[in-house]
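Bug report

Summary: structure tokens for Flagellar hook-associated protein 3 FlgL differ between web form and batch submission.
Environment: batch mode, default settings.
Steps: 1) Submit the sequence below via batch. 2) Compare with the web form result.

Sequence submitted:
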Amino acid sequence: MRVTQSMIANQTLRHIQSNYNNISKYQNQLNTGKKFSRASEDPLSATSGMHYRTQVREIEQFQRNLSSAHTWMETSDQALYDVNTSLQRMRELTSQAANDTYDSEQRKAAAEEIGQLIDHIKDLGNTKVNNKYIFNGTDTENQPIDKSKFDITVEDPNAPPDGTMLFYEGVLYEFTDGSYQEHGIDPEDEGRTPGEIDVNKAVFFESGAISINEDDVELQMMKGVNMPINANGADIFGYEGFGELILLERSMKSADSGTEIGDHLDVLDQQLDRVLSAEANIGARQNRIMMTENRMDQQLITATRIMSDNEDVDFAEAIIQLVSHESILNASLSAGARIMQPSLIDFLR
């Protein structure tokens, strides 16, 4: 086979161009820190990289969800703790006032403090996080408690405005269509009726005084795992609970003996039990969120490492390859210069 000068020249130029391409490749890797800058350079790694990036972004979103859940539940826990503290103080005052050594003035002073504590609990029922009401289920835009509609005075207790709520003798009634119906009972069923109402033992609420949505507010903690992050406000801030507290305040102001006041201790204990149960539920979910958060942190580290192994360049190796191909290029240029000696024609051009 005859080897011509042009064949040698073309082959030399191809090798030199190949060396330039390799140098450019490793320079790009050092400049960008990535093994490839276009998917066509390594389709398999590029496809895997898209999957790894999606996984990392998904974990980061779960971590943001967990952070939101922490904020929501910590605020709920603090609000419930404050409710608990308020009820404990009421119980302490009730226990003291039930002692017949207390006179009417001392009981009235205790009643004033209890009234303030009731208002404080109402405010806690309207606690907000990020401008959202945390005790109103999924209806986070509307406040669950309207303090102005509590303990209202009605002209005729047997015929108040429609929608009026009545707490009487431990039972909650709603006045609709001209009569009282036991609240929470199917209208077709025969519930209890209040009978003749003693206004001194009755607590009236205007329609809409308490409107609590009981649906769970859920956040996705990880793929396929949702968790409610709210406490059910109806268990803590219901009509019955406030009705009992308002009657306690009245007893403090009007009772002639401590026995009548002491009867409210059992009711306070029941309310404290409900609050403690809600606190325990929130605490259990907080522990689960902390464990999930630790798991997400580990998954993020693993996913980031795998993504880095797939697309991040090994700088030491890239520098070695760059220097090596620069040496090869210099050798190719030197060899090509010896093979393709300039002729008279080259100078005439």
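Above is the batch result. After comparison, the two runs are identical; trailing whitespace caused the diff. The chain is about 60% helix and 10% strand. The longest helix spans residues 43-97.
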